[in-house]
Amino acid sequence: MKFENSNIDIDTIPIIDSEYFNPLDKKYDSVLMIKSILFSLFIVVGYLIFYYLSPKGKISSNLHLGIIILLVSISIFNLLVTHLGFNKKKYKLRQHDLIYKTGLLWKSETSIPFVRVQHSEVIQGPIERMFHLAKLKLYTAGGHSSDLSVPGLKPQKAEELKDFITNRIQEEEE
Amino acid sequence: MILEENINTFNEPTRQSYVAILLILYKVYTRVLKQFWYLLVPLFIGKRTDSKYIIYILVGLAILLGIYSIIDFFRYKFHIEGTDLIVNKGVFSKKRIVIPFDRIQSINFKQNLIQQIFGVVGLEIDTAGTSKKEFDFHALNIKTSNSLRDYIFANKKLTTNLQKETTETPLNLEVKLKRILSLDLGDLVKIGVTQNHFRSLFVAIFSIYWLLDNVKKAGIDIDKYMNDINEENILHLGIIILLSLALISIIAVIIVSIFRSIFRYYELVLYRIPNGFKLEYGLFNRNEISVMDNKMQVLIWSDNILRKILKLFTLQIKLASSISVKQRKSILLPGIKQRDINKIKNFYFPNNSSHISKFEKSNIYYLWRRIGIITIIFMLFFMLLTLFINLNNEIISEFYDLYIFLGVSYFYYLLTSYLRYKKMEFGINEEVLQINSGIFGNKYSLFTIYKLQGVKLSQTPGQSHRDIASLKVYSSAGNDEIKYIKKEIAEKLRDYILFKIESDKREWM
Description:
The complex is a heterodimer. Chain A is α+β, with helices and mostly antiparallel strands. Chain A has helices spanning 27-53, 61-86, 126-130, 155-173, and strands at 22-23, 90-93, 97-102, 107-113, 117-123, 134-140, 148-153.
């Protein structure tokens, strides 16, 4: 194999445009909402338990009420942001890489080239399983923070994607 | 031919040097002692009638462990089959480990005192993809380990098609060692003196404070003693005591650093070996590390305020690490000059291909945002402190030093933010991406673009508003971020990096 290092015209480099991004399965919105509600419930119930266990009279009940109202309103706000954020979660498959875009306020766009994928897997959490959804995860040697997950895929689609990527990796290696 | 001999040697399953028994015993005993030392405590406390039996049990256990170690030694054999290194081991169950040469990242030699006395070396073979060390040779004689390493590296090179050099490289690798740089005693003293002393100094000052406090508690009233002295002299004396204590602690800290750097990096020599580097260093624990060129992912060189004056840098050659192993996957060269860095850079990037002609600065919004956040945090502190004083009806003048402390730290953070912003820049050419940073010192990180693992473009709400973005690059030897640049530029960079990774067919490790 001979390595060449010819000059590259910067305009000929393929760019990632905002078109052809695929949305996630609509049902994944529900999964996200349920997860958000469960998390809120966990916090609020936790606080209520703390309230009943703590000695009466030390903290005024108005303060308790205030905190609970605050927690509930944060939860509702969180639910709203989650719902609006769902539409921002998109992925794009190109010939050589996979791109995942997310974030309503704090946006991010991660790209992983197939030649650097160590291995990939399809994961299903309990809530995802109820909605017949799966998550595709790509692992690289860049550590946990560079692993890429695309959630909210139909299980069949996730498997197809995984096979496609595995094939691409093998082709690249040849 | 020498190599011919070696091939024959490694074809046969070979044991380690007999010194290994001693080292295995030492290792096993210290490990057991470290975990079960508390079992020995009853032996020393009080007179117990059953202590005799405890001793019997202990001696029995020690003998059993000894037998175990000896069996372990005799069962541990290695040889080479084709381009695989094979180790057979196991006391109770037999294990056979096969490591293809291609998976070997580096071969490191270590010598502790026992190994130095007997003229053997310990060998560690690091492989990609596993978290724990699969090979741990305790003692091989130096000649065997050298030829083993050279054989592996020579054949590794043949299997990973690395250009035309194979025909030019003589097979006897010992001769080809080329000294790149070495540190003498003077260099080591310089390294020790210019260590970042702030932390040690902080510890020293804290201990003095603690000491004085305890002296007071012990009944020696320094204040009273001070009062006895002529009033004019009080301030004078206080300053003298403080200054001399500070001076003593600074000198002590520096001396300790000098000794540490001498012990650690004594006779550090970096050699060029075919397709790699070899590093030797250490006084009591002599280390030898070899790395192949293609394992290099990132080069980082940095200085601090003191080293800037002497124009000295610390260079880190960061290697590909497997997912779970984070530590110790790099070579560290302290106290080297810009000239040496350029020399090493040129081995990795020949024909000056790592030269970057233009560096870009980050957007000023980074600085404003940081100042804004710091100001808000300190205002909150200030308000809380004032509120606390008022609520508890305390006298405000008693808290003046706290206010002063808050003010000083606020300005310190402003200063560091400004310095940080001033030093943030990046540069790119076809082959490399360099990210510079630092506060008082400088840090330069040089990434080989095609070896990167992925990129992430991100925007905070404030950044979106101003069309600014940050670009994070992931490598298998650590991540870095180009902060606050025009979104358009960030996208172009991302597209180029992806293009380079996908189109460059060279092996990334």
